[in-house]
Prior knowledge:
The chain is 0% helix and 50% strand. By secondary structure, the chain is an all-beta fold. The protein has one domain (2-57). Strand 4 (34-42) and strand 5 form a beta hairpin.
Amino acid sequence: MTLTSEWYEIKRPDGSTVRLRNIWNWAPQDDGAIKNWGFIQRDDENAELRKYFDIVYRKNAIGSAAKSEIRK
């Protein structure tokens, strides 16, 4: 599934503005996990999408304490 935001403007430190939008993706994985990743897109035909998060959600085993892990 993909969700794309409306375009929005932000001010840069130099006072100029830039138009951006967010694109979020979710995809089920073979092991039952859900992969979630997102991009920022600049309103410029030469701009590349910039990935700003990549997360995998997994269920904890019954009776286990919640655990989190950050990998780079």
